[in-house]
């Protein structure tokens, strides 16, 4: 009986395992091997075993720095905007309007990110918001092709991915806990800090990691709203693989990015364990 269960489990997991191995593990192995090679005479890859590509990562420090600064900043900004919105949708809106408002949150995803980025180019360009501020006598500001423009674009583009995990956590909240806290004399802010926030942290963690991981590999928004002046690692990889044709150096940069993400995911899993323990403590109170 035990053998048949193992066989059934293996058969069920085989398609997903094969898909995972071919489309994720194998490409990562190829990139890792390339990262220890050298650039060929005509570009591309030349077999070798050297750490020179990793030693040269400082040449792309600007891209790494922008990514490591703006990706967390964009994630935090999206969280600060998404949490009040998700809280309002889950706990303050009646069921009659909830579906309509949720649809409005996801409506931007119905339009290509390319078109939405072009819209922000107009809004942040010389004839958009800066022109309006100048007409109001508030000075001549430059918004487009700046880190601020990139930050606005990534927050706008990824906000729904932050809203929905938080909304799901808040929507599942047992409101009897809030009623009991009110009956015991707890003010609303204390109920939020001691009940609502701890129980919604799994959604916060999921949304934050989802947005952060995608932002670490972002290419289009920095390219369009940064105007070639605010590079992310994704932009550097496109340059190295398609223009400079330095596949070895590009692979080393990609492996470094993957290593950063692995560390992040590890910390994320530990954070989830602590959240689970804290949630259990709240449930036992």
TrEMBL record:
GO biological process: transmembrane transport
Gene3D superfamilies the UniProt entry points to: MetI-like
Membrane-topology annotation of the record: Multi-pass membrane protein
Keyword Lipid biosynthesis tagged: no
Domain ABC transmembrane type-1 intervals: 64-268
InterPro entries recorded: MetI-like (IPR000515), MetI-like_sf (IPR035906)
Protein name in UniProt: Polyamine ABC transporter, permease protein PotB-3
Protein source organism: Rhodobacter capsulatus (strain ATCC BAA-309 / NBRC 16581 / SB1003)
Gene designation: potB3
């Amino acid at each position: 009986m035990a053998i048949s269960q193992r066989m059934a489990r293996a058969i069920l997991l085989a398609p997903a395992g094969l898909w995972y191995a071919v489309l994720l593990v194998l490409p990562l192995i190829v990139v890792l091997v390339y990262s220890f090679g050298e650039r060929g005479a005509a570009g591309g890859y030349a077999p070798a075993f050297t750490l020179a590509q990793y030693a040269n990562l400082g040449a792309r420090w600007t891209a790494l720095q922008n990514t490591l600064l703006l990706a967390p900043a964009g994630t935090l900004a999206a969280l600060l905007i998404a949490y009040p919105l998700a809280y309002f949708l889950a706990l303050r809106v009646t069921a009659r309007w909830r579906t309509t408002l949720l649809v409005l949150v996801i409506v931007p995803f119905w339009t290509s990110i390319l078109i939405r980025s072009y819209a922000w180019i107009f809004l942040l360009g010389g004839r958009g918001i800066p022109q309006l501020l100048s007409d109001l006598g508030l000075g001549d500001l430059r918004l487009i092709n700046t880190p601020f423009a990139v930050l606005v674009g990534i927050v706008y583009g990824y906000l729904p991915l932050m809203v929905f995990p938080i909304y799901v956590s808040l929507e599942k909240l047992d409101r009897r806990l809030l009623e009991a806290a009110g009956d015991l004399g707890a003010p609303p802010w204390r109920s939020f800090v001691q009940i609502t926030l701890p129980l919604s942290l799994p959604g916060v963690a999921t949304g934050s990691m989802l947005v952060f991981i995608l932002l670490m590999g972002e290419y289009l928004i920095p390219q369009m709203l940064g105007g070639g002046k605010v590079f992310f690692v994704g932009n550097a990889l496109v340059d190295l693989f398609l223009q400079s044709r330095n596949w070895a150096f590009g692979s080393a940069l990609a492996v470094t990015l993957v290593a950063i993400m692995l560390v992040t995911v590890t910390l994320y899993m530990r954070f989830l364990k602590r959240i689970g323990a804290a949630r259990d403590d709240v449930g036992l109170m």
